[in-house]
């Protein structure tokens, strides 16, 4: 399934993507239950929050039923054009855990010693914005940069998880831009990585969360970024130094991963800071970020 949060008639609503359409989950489940002669319990079954949905197996099963019902030709009234819908950030994560220098080619362009364990930083939830939004760069930030990433959404509590079972804790995947103010990483005596990456709007995510059965194993996914129509990054998750499973196992040894937590798995080579000459983001820039089998996230810079 592709699960979205979108602007409905009465505020944010949970939905799914069927072809080129968006389906509101509660109305679709209501219609499916009434068609089957069941009492309408859609408001009880489908929560109003994406994290609650992802962490509830019965609700996820019901969401699949709703989308399958809405996909039938005779139920077109349950679908609205995706192009006309206002898609919001798919969820508000509990924790956003980033991983630095996690692609081999990016580690080479950054330089420094070989990493023996994942390099972890955190982004606050106040940095989250949705697809189509404008990232407002603070006036005093002179070196804003882009980083396309595969985002991993946790679906159930994970503590001391063995690597071989780690993917069982994944609710889905999304696309993420780890926007970074490079001067606070590289131009100060002590790097302030979380601050550099945690400013307002510095974590665009979306456009949806794709459940694992649609993505498959996340070992060989192309990861790309275009700046103003020009490809600036093209990597593949096979180049990850620490795999998705390894990251979940590592993090869960030190903290409990909760439903809705988001892991930003790292970025391939091609970021602006290490270009010759460097290229930093500026007002009017448009970014297109894509992860194979997950989706395309677009936003601009203001």
Write structural notes for this entry:
- The protein has 302 residues and is an alpha+beta fold.
- It has two domains: 2-84, no CATH class; 96-301, Alpha-Beta Complex (Fumarylacetoacetate hydrolase, domain 2), CATH 3.90.850.10.
- It has helices spanning 25-35, 42-45, 50-54, 57-70, 104-110, 183-186, 193-197, 212-215, 244-252; strands at 2-8, 11-18, 21-24, 79-81, 96-100, 119-123, 128-129, 134-135, 144-145, 148-154, 170-177, 180-181, 203-210, 222-227, 230-236, 262-264, 286-291, 295-301.
- Strands 1, 2, 3, 4, 5, 6, 7, 10, 11, 13 and 16 form an eleven-stranded mixed β-sheet that branches.
- α1 (25-35) packs across α4.
- The radius of gyration is 19 Å and the shape is globular.
- It starts with a strand and ends with a strand.
- The model has no long low-confidence stretch (mean pLDDT 97).
Q: What is the CATH superfamily classification of the largest domain?
A: Fumarylacetoacetase-like, C-terminal domain
Helix content: 10-25%
- Please name the CATH topology of the largest domain: Fumarylacetoacetate hydrolase, domain 2
Helix/strand structural class: alpha+beta
| End-to-end separation | 33 Å
Low-confidence runs: none
Major beta-sheet overview: 11 strands, mixed
Report the sheet-strand fraction.
Answer: 25-35%
CATH class of the largest domain reads Alpha Beta
Mean pLDDT: 97
Domain count: 2
Return Rg in Å. 19 Å
Please tell me what the overall shape is: globular
Topology as a string of helices (H) and strands (E): EEEHHHHEEHEEEEEEEHHEHEEHEEE
Q: How many helix segments?
A: 9
Q: In CATH terms, what is the architecture of the largest domain? A: Alpha-Beta Complex
The total strand number stands at: 18
């Amino acid at each position: 399934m592709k699960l979205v949060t979108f602007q409905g008639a009465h505020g944010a609503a949970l939905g799914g993507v069927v072809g080129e359409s968006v389906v509101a989950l509660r109305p679709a489940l209501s219609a499916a239950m009434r068609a089957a002669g069941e009492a309408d319990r859609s408001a009880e079954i489908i929560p109003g929050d994406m994290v609650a949905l992802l962490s509830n197996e019965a609700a996820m099963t019901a969401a699949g039923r709703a989308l399958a019902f809405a996909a039938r030709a005779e139920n077109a009234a349950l679908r609205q054009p995706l192009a006309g819908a206002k898609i919001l950030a798919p969820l508000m994560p509990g924790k956003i855990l980033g991983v630095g220098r996690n692609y081999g080619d990016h580690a080479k362009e950054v330089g420094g010693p070989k990493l023996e364990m994942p390099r972890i930083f955190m982004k606050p939830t106040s940095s989250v914005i949705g697809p189509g939004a404008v990232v407002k760069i603070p006036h005093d930030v002179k070196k804003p940069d882009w980083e396309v990433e595969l985002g991993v959404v946790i679906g159930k509590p994970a503590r001391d998880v063995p690597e071989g079972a780690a993917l069982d804790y994944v609710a889905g995947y999304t696309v993420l831009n780890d926007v970074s103010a490079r001067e606070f990483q590289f131009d100060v005596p002590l790097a302030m990585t979380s601050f550099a990456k945690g400013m307002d709007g510095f974590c665009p995510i979306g456009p949806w969360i794709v459940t694992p059965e649609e993505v498959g194993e996340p070992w060989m996914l192309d990861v790309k970024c275009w700046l103003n129509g020009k490809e600036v990054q093209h990597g593949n998750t096979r180049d990850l130094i620490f795999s998705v499973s390894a990251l979940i196992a590592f993090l869960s040894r030190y903290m409990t991963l909760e439903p809705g937590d988001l892991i930003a798995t790292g970025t391939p080579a091609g970021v602006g800071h290490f270009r010759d000459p460097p290229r930093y983001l500026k007002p009017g820039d448009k970014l297109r970020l894509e992860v194979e089998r997950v989706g395309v996230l677009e936003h601009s810079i203001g």
